[in-house]
Each structure stands twice: as structure tokens, then as C-alpha cells.
Design brief:
This protein is an alpha/beta fold and 128 residues long. It has one domain: Hypothetical Protein Mth938, Chain: A (3-Layer(aba) Sandwich), CATH 3.40.1230. The strands form 2 sheets. The chain has a 5-stranded mixed beta sheet with strand order 5-4-8-6-7, with helices on both faces. The chain has a 3-stranded antiparallel beta sheet with strand order 1-2-3. It is globular, with a radius of gyration of 14 Å.
Length: 128
């Protein structure tokens, strides 16, 4: 059996990550360093993100905005892990038919890129 890595070049990918930053690369562009809360999708980047409204209050306007992105799965980066707030948020997304996973930054970035190679549409919510 021959195994080879497939390169994903037509969507936004995460090139690297570290303490307080993500390095993302949109299609046909240079990598961009992100150091603020953001939403990463295969189609682009949203930097204006009220993370507290999403996680702590499950604000309906913010949830609807994310639902419009039509994700297969939402990956929530939360260094505190699974909390009552993230469980409530996951339940709110489940009500509208969207799965949500909570992960640390490293596993979240790797999972996002892996899902891209499978042809899926992940949305990553990153908090810094």
C-alpha cells in the first residue's frame, strides 16, 4: 500500500501555531499571522469575533452568523477544556444540527487541516 500526503491548496489552511498565534495561508496568498480571536473557515477568516458572546452567553446573533457558514463541524479552541459554558454551546449547536468539539489549540489545528483533506468543511473558533 502506498500512502502519500495530499496537499490542500484551494482553501485556507493552518500552517503552524504556537503560544498566542496561528499562521494561516489563504489560497494563492502569503501566510498571515493571527494573534486575536477569530473564526477560521476553508473560505476565509473572520477577525471581528465576540468570543464571550458566543461561549458564555450563546448569543443567538453570533450563533446564526456561524450557522450561515454551513460547517460540517465546529472546533472550539478553549484552553480551559470542556466547561459548563462550552457544553451549553455544544447543545445549542446540536439543536440546529451542527456538531461541536472543544480542543486545545494544537489538536484543534491538526483536526481542522485533517478534515480539510477529507473534503469536509470545518469551522475553527480560536480564542487568544
Amino acid at each position: 500500500m502506498k500512502i502519500s500526503q495530499e496537499a490542500v491548496t484551494d482553501v485556507l489552511v493552518i500552517k503552524s501555531y504556537g503560544d498566542g498565534f496561528l499562521l494561516v495561508q489563504p489560497p494563492q496568498q502569503l501566510p498571515q499571522k493571527i494573534t486575536q480571536n477569530c473564526i477560521i473557515t476553508p473560505d476565509g477568516l473572520v477577525l471581528e469575533l465576540d468570543f464571550d458572546a458566543i461561549v458564555e452567553t450563546a448569543d443567538n446573533v453570533q450563533l446564526e452568523h456561524i450557522q450561515l457558514l454551513q460547517p460540517d463541524v465546529i472546533i472550539l479552541v478553549n484552553e480551559a477544556g470542556i466547561t459548563p459554558e462550552t457544553q451549553r454551546l455544544a447543545a445549542n449547536f446540536a439543536e440546529i444540527g451542527i456538531a461541536m468539539e472543544t480542543m486545545l489549540l494544537g489538536p484543534a489545528c491538526r483536526t481542522y487541516n485533517l478534515l480539510l483533506t477529507e473534503g469536509r468543511k470545518p469551522v475553527l473558533l480560536a480564542r487568544f
